[in-house]
Design brief:
The structure is a single chain. The chain is an alpha+beta fold. The protein has a single domain, classed as 2-Layer Sandwich (Heat Shock Protein 90). It is 45% helix and 17% strand. The chain has six helices and seven strands; from the N terminus they run αααβαββαββαββ. A hairpin with a 2-residue loop joins strand 4 and strand 5. Helix 1 crosses helix 6 and helix 5 runs antiparallel to helix 6.
């Protein structure tokens, strides 16, 4: 099913654009560093083996080439940080917000195809997050759930304060393709059975930032996704949210 067109007056558009840029940059940085690490490890192994052979002492270029590999990998890593920055360490904008207000914004601004409607049962609670980031995270999940519907239908959302925190459950939810998990699917890649991995990565990033979690229930258990956020402020977020 096709998505609805973008709205020029979208109240979360600026937050979404920054979140997409941050997520894709973070993913690229992670991938490149993994490859640089693989090169470094392979060179170390080859260097150790070659150093035990006659070639090591008979051809001075061998040692020079290994030194060049080490130097080039270190330089590439520095360029990567200089170009795209190190992982953000900025503090999250934590403030008490009304959960119901943020969820109402998520529903009102969700871009879904004609024929999709939302049914919500929301218990209000005070949550310590950035209101727009919470709204964006929930909107991403609502749109992914709507996209997974093969025909017009209903996306349901329930929210309530529980012992674990403020839990927002959305369904129906389509799992990642068999043998895969959310963390194994790169941002921007679409799951075979529907939904955009990028939006789910953004929601997961917001959850981690504020000490919450994003959990999926398989279709055999009802097919839903739950975003849970703490009801108390967190002093030191692990990951900074996208800047405004």
């Amino acid at each position: 099913m096709a998505r609805a067109t973008l709205k020029p007056d979208d109240p979360l558009l600026h937050k979404e654009r920054q979140a997409i840029a941050d997520e894709l940059t973070s993913n690229m940085r992670h991938d490149v560093r993994n490859r640089l690490s693989a090169i470094r490890n392979a060179a170390f192994y080859l260097k150790r083996r070659v150093s035990q052979t006659e070639l090591w002492s008979s051809d001075a270029r061998v040692q020079q080439f290994f030194a060049l590999i080490d130097e080039s990998v270190a330089h590439a890593d520095k360029l990567l940080v200089a170009k795209f920055g190190a992982p953000s360490e900025q503090g999250a904008k934590v403030a008490p917000v009304r959960g119901a207000t943020a969820l109402a914004l998520a529903v009102a601004s969700a871009r879904v195809a004609p024929g999709i409607r939302f049914e919500a049962s929301v218990e209000d609670a005070e949550v310590y997050v950035d209101a727009e980031e919470l709204a964006l995270a929930v909107r991403c999940l609502l749109e992914s759930a709507a996209y997974s519907l093969s025909r017009p239908g209903v996306v349901r959302m329930n929210a309530a304060a529980e012992t674990a925190g403020y839990r927002i459950e959305i369904g129906p939810w389509t799992e990642a393709s068999p043998g895969s998990t959310r963390d194994e699917i790169s941002p921007g890649q679409r799951w075979e059975e529907g939904g955009d991995a990028l939006g789910v990565h953004i929601a997961a990033r917001v959850a981690r930032c504020y000490g919450g979690s994003l959990d999926e229930a398989p279709a055999s258990e009802g097919g839903s996704v739950s975003l849970t956020l703490p009801l108390e402020p967190r002093e030191s977020p692990d990951i900074a949210p996208p800047a405004s």
